[in-house]
Amino acid sequence: MRVFIAVDLESREALANLTALQRLLLESGADVKLVEPQNLHFTIKFLGEVDASVVSEVKWVLSKIESPTIKIVYQGVGAFPSLSHPNVIWVGSDKEGGALLTKLASIVESRIAHLKLGDHKPFVPHLTVARVRSGRNKDALIKIINSNLNTVFGEDTLTKIKLKKSDLTPKGPIYTDLYVKPLVSGA
Question: Long-range contacts of range 136-143, CB-CB < 8 Å, 24 or more positions apart?
Fold first, then answer.
């Protein structure tokens, strides 16, 4: 099964603001595929195709992680690989929240390194909000990104790290939580 470790967006206010941004991206006339609101998350580590024994091992590893809840501000819009060639449009975080997410990702990476799973790209805290399918109306899309480089979309307290299964369908991925580990309040 295809799995990844993630932290989900939890704030209703931030979700409303992010879906408003997604509407703007659609209204640009650009050829974008929006991430479904219920699927917005920070990918801590993509593990790829694994079997049930690996899932069990990752659940055990996650169960042993003691990390604090993460206060975060959703801030700024960007694109991978670059603003002039957007393939993925994302919303970032404030410096402090991003540092805490990066620390959590580093802990996870070190604890599962022996399993030799997934990619080894450096962690960049971001929520993917849309994927660009073609160059149609790219200039209008870039204009929206540039006008939101510093926009604040809301605050959140992230309280759980999850192991998720991803089933790819023609309508988009369907995510299922395989394991949920609460982060520690006030730690």
Answer: 136/29, 136/30, 136/31, 137/28, 137/29, 137/30, 137/31, 138/30, 138/86, 140/28, 140/29, 140/30, 141/25, 141/28, 141/30, 141/32, 141/86, 141/89, 142/83, 142/84, 142/86, 143/28
Q: Evaluate whether 46 touches 119 at the Cβ level (below 8 Å).
A: yes
Q: How much is the pLDDT for 186?
A: 59
Task: Identify the residue whose tokens are 């919303």.
Answer: 91
Percentage of the chain with pLDDT > 70?
Answer: 99
pLDDT at 177: 98
Active-site amino acid positions? 41, 126
**Is the pLDDT score of 112 beyond 60?**
yes
Burial class (CB within 10 angstroms; exposed 0-12, middle 13-18, buried 19+) of 77: buried
pLDDT beyond 70 at 187: no
